[in-house]
């Protein structure tokens, strides 16, 4: 009953939880396609700074190089041969197919059984570039996975780093590979390497482990994510989010792993500890605020985006988490800091996160009460170089904000919303103009127009009048005139 009474306090509820969850699912998929594939390669090469590795040869010469290196491997000159092969794989993924046709895989397999650390390191490095090849070659290379996994529990940190990287490449190639690796028990071994602050401080190894975990977490069945959670991923993420400084390149990988696992619907139905999501959200928001304070450069955007996506998805998928975010003292400051970014991608994801937050009416009222945040949103609308998609998203957010209460709408007017919208209306496309009119109509209905001093709203009427003279859209003109009729004669004649 208390919940029902609470909702009656609001003028209009806007989108309900079900609607916002559907929107979040769509946004999640589009966000992953838009950013993740650009910022996080599923399979990665490992190449030394050798000129020979970067100069691509003709197809015939490449084939001869691979065949020659394979023969060299057979003759026992393992380190030299493996070094030549990993350079060949780096130059052209087709060289991996040539190597397999030359029956090189059993030779590489035997090298992984060596007791010589130099041979082992060269073989593991070669495995990385082999597993970064085309899918057909990667499927053949999957037979190496049991041997790669066993090195994860060894004492050689270099082998752990290289083998984790190769496993990440295998996992990133296909869903079936993820399931195979899961069945081979790879996840507990990987998580053990990030289970303590001491382990995490080995940065190059941690980066490789995170690469593998991220690609495993992207499975479509949720089996890998479930296995991670059952093997104390939550504890590892707490360590990673707390211990790794914002200046570290690991921050981006940590953000993607957190987002991959905690942006899934299943997390809310299967989670063992109800406090996990709240703790993760708190740590993600805190990290986002600190990242937003870093000097602007290319890496800053890459590091912030996964945390924004994780935050927006968690809030959008759970009303309880949206309410929890409203109690976090750093949430709205983090959003305000993100809105100061010069990156269009950051701005879009920030507005999207706020839209998910504002699906809950009480959260909407909280945002409206933040004058500095609202001022930044309104100023974004009138920036000359604003992207149309971003402008449309900001206006959609504003449409939701005016559906809280008359009191909140009067506060919006006091913050200069009508002035900003009136200015924007004169320079807008018809699709945007329709949204602006919807917002203005609700605001004007909640304003006691007869009590306004003469000329107080003349700028609003002027912008509406201007729109009727320049628009060729008959429906838009009729809509504009309907809004103009809200003005009493005493006000409209001024």
What are the defining features of this structure?
494 residues, mainly alpha, 0% strand, single chain, disordered C terminus
Q: If classified by CATH, what would the architecture of the domain at 363-494 be? A: Alpha Horseshoe
Secondary-structure-based class equals mainly alpha
Residue share in helix: over 70%
Mean pLDDT figure: 84
Protein name: Importin subunit alpha
Pfam families: Arm (PF00514)
Can you describe this structure?
The protein is mainly alpha-helical and 494 residues long. The chain has a domain at 363-494: Leucine-rich Repeat Variant, CATH 1.25.10. Helix content is 73%, strand content 0%. It has 33 helices and no strands. It has helices spanning 2-8, 17-39, 51-54, 59-74, 78-91, 94-101, 105-111, 117-131, 135-141, 145-152, 157-173, 175-183, 186-192, 197-200, 203-217, 223-230, 233-243, 250-262, 266-270, 275-292, 298-317, 319-327, 331-338, 344-357, 361-368, 371-381, 388-401, 406-414, 417-425, 430-445, 458-470, 474-484, 489-492. Helix 17 runs parallel beside helix 20 (275-292). The longest helix is centred in the N-terminal third of the chain and has 23 residues, at 17-39. The chain is elongated and about 95 Å long.
